């Protein structure tokens, strides 16, 4: 996202483990995870929140919604990806499908296949997640899909690969 908005920034790479659990880092992010953005003495955590924040603060980048129709899709897909989609992906690799089958009504995503099918529908219907225009939502969702395809946590669907390639 920082590359997309074309502003100078400094990256600090933390080693998994001690660095991420140090008192200095926990003061920034009590969860002890990355990413964490510090901008103008403000601390922003969570990748989706960082993307939304940067798109809004650097609005001249054109990566935030420009009207209510875009805004509705933008928030829908940002929060869908940060919530139900991420939960479905993580739970698939933690629990056996039969363990959660009878508990689907309690899950915010139903099941893994439904979560992926829902995202597929949005990606197949438009060149970008909110429609005809590239936004911060594409940065976030594209990164999530790219990572999942690379590490095999997301099914290698053709529409996902085409979307990630289009964004690259």
The CATH class designation of the largest domain is Mainly Alpha
Distance between the termini: 13 Å
Average pLDDT, rounded to a whole number, is: 93
Radius of gyration: 17 Å
Order of helices and strands: HHEEHHHHHH
Q: How large is the share of residues in beta strands?
A: under 5%
CATH topology of the largest domain: Glutathione S-transferase Yfyf (Class Pi), Chain A, domain 2
Secondary-structure-derived class: mainly alpha
Write the layout of secondary structure elements.
Elements: H1 2-5, H2 23-28, E1 36-39, E2 42-45, H3 47-57, H4 68-94, H5 97-101, H6 112-125, H7 136-151, H8 158-167
Antiparallel strand pairs: 1-2
Helix pairs in contact: 3-7, 4-6, 4-7, 7-8
Walk me through what this model shows.
The chain has 168 residues and is mainly alpha-helical. It has two domains: 60 residues, Glutaredoxin; 100 residues, Up-down Bundle (Glutathione S-transferase Yfyf (Class Pi), Chain A, domain 2), CATH 1.20.1050. A two-stranded antiparallel ribbon has the order 1-2. Helix 4 packs antiparallel against helix 6. It is globular. The chain starts with a helix and ends with a helix. The mean pLDDT is 93.
